[in-house]
Write a structure and sequence with these properties.
It contains 15 helices and 14 strands. 44% of the residues are buried. Bound molecules: flavin-adenine dinucleotide (FAD).
């Protein structure tokens, strides 16, 4: 089968290396618009449980990736300058470009054809392929071309966010809430290298217009944020990498494929960054598609099998992500809660865990919360 993969992010590279290693007979070509050393964003975070599941599925890939990861346990929440530690749960952060470089090397070794600085603008460029895998991210050109056929639904959230880096190696994944005049901000920050962290800043729509952020330049906005989060930044400036402020756009599709075109990763659906699972979901889509191709003898059967096996899990994540972003969309009300109540409300936000499970997974935090709730 001649397979064209649009995009060179985690979904594309994972899919190509996995299938080519399992079935070298396929001719697989990746087309990525950026140069090999460029990407957006900084670091991404995985849960330790996700890492273990990936390791079971593909020990070779993980043997290269895990040494490049920063590991930690637990989370931290800071509200009204009070710190709440949430024990339990292991996490791993990795620089996005490092992850892509390791996967690209594995693709090249497996015999995948890699074309960088090649932006696909028209589906006719892919006419000679038997299968086109759309792994071209949240703004996928393939998905937009066939939006009606895929049944694409998009929705823009009202909060504003921007993704920065900072040379501070935070001990754990941390959520810091800050109020300033009429402003309500939250920063999601964690380390992904021994010397550097991701610093993602979010504010509600009232803050955006109330503080006049909508009328400022990016440089000015950066200074406002540096001021609001001065204690967390510890004198370091925010580092930019295509760090535009925007509203998060949720994407879902009623159908996952159309003729010889199939969607994976963020092109298929976005999972809000607050559940920290976008890269993991993209990788799992890629594994499912590669397995479906290896297990069937024709493209239509493979695409039907991919959707049938993968859809139930993806739908569950979409629900969890929805509950999570709605929590952040209510940031202003949530910040009226006391720090301990805010932390508990946050832990319960997706509806996927109940109090008994929380007690098992975060025993110290839950004990402190129970003592606080009785008072
Ligand atoms: C602010 C923010 C924070 C996040 N934090 C996390 C996190 O902590 N953990 C996590 O797991 N995930 C996180 N994510 C999500 C994660 O980045 C994505 O879910 C993941 O990158 C999806 O992988 P992908 O390969 O589907 O798409 P992408 O990584 O977006 O890759 C798509 C690729 O396609 C290329 N491309 C696009 N159009 C074309 C074209 N026409 N021709 C050729 N190439 C094209 C792009 O250049 C890009 O390289 C975050 C996302 C955001 C926005």
């Amino acid at each position: 089968v001649r397979i064209a993969v649009v995009g060179g992010g985690p979904a594309a590279l994972w899919f190509a290396r996995t299938l080519k290693r399992a079935e070298p007979k396929h001719q697989i070509a990746i087309y990525e618009q950026n140069t090999a050393g460029a990407t957006y964003g900084f670091g991404v975070v995985f849960s330790r449980r996700a890492i273990e599941m990936l390791r079971d599925a593909d020990p070779d890939a993980l043997a290269a990736i895990v040494p490049a990861m920063e590991m930690w346990d637990g989370q931290t929440m800071v509200h009204r300058d009070e710190t709440v530690l949430i024990d339990g749960g292991g996490y791993a952060g990795i620089e996005r470009i490092t992850l892509l470089t390791l996967l690209r090397e594995q693709c090249a070794r497996a015999g995948v054809e890699l074309s960088y600085e090649r932006r696909i603008t028209n589906m006719e460029e892919l006419a000679s392929s038997d299968l086109v895998v759309a792994a071209d991210g949240a703004n996928s050109i393939v998905r937009q071309t066939f939006a009606r056929e895929f049944g694409t639904v998009q929705h823009s959230l009202s909060n504003w966010f921007a993704w920065f880096g900072v040379d501070v190696p935070y001990a754990t994944h941390t959520l810091t809430f800050r109020s300033s005049a009429t402003g309500r901000f939250v920063a999601h920050h964690y380390r992904f290298r021994p010397d550097r962290g991701t610093f993602l800043v979010e504010c509600d729509a009232r803050t955006w217009t109330g503080l006049g952020l909508d009328r400022l330049t990016d440089e000015h906005r950066k200074r406002v944020v540096e001021d609001v989060f001065a204690p967390e930044l510890r004198g370091q400036p925010l580092i930019e990498n295509k760090s535009q402020w925007r509203n998060y756009v949720t994407v879902t599709n009623q159908r996952w494929s159309h003729n010889r075109f199939v969607l994976i990763g963020d092109a298929l659906r976005t999972a809000h960054f607050s559940i920290g699972s976008g890269t993991r979901l993209a990788i799992d889509d890629a594994t499912a598609l590669a397995s479906a191709i290896a297990a069937t003898s024709g493209v239509p059967e493979a695409l039907a099998r991919y959707e049938a096996t993968r859809r139930p899990t993806v739908d569950r994540f979409i629900e969890a992500a929805r509950a999570s972003y709605l929590w952040y969309e209510a940031l202003r009300d949530k910040m009226e809660l006391e720090p301990m109540d805010l932390a508990y409300d946050y832990m319960m936000r997706t509806g996927r865990i109940d109090h008994a499970r929380l007690r098992r997974e975060t025993p110290k935090f839950t004990r402190r919360y129970e003592a606080h709730a009785i008072r």
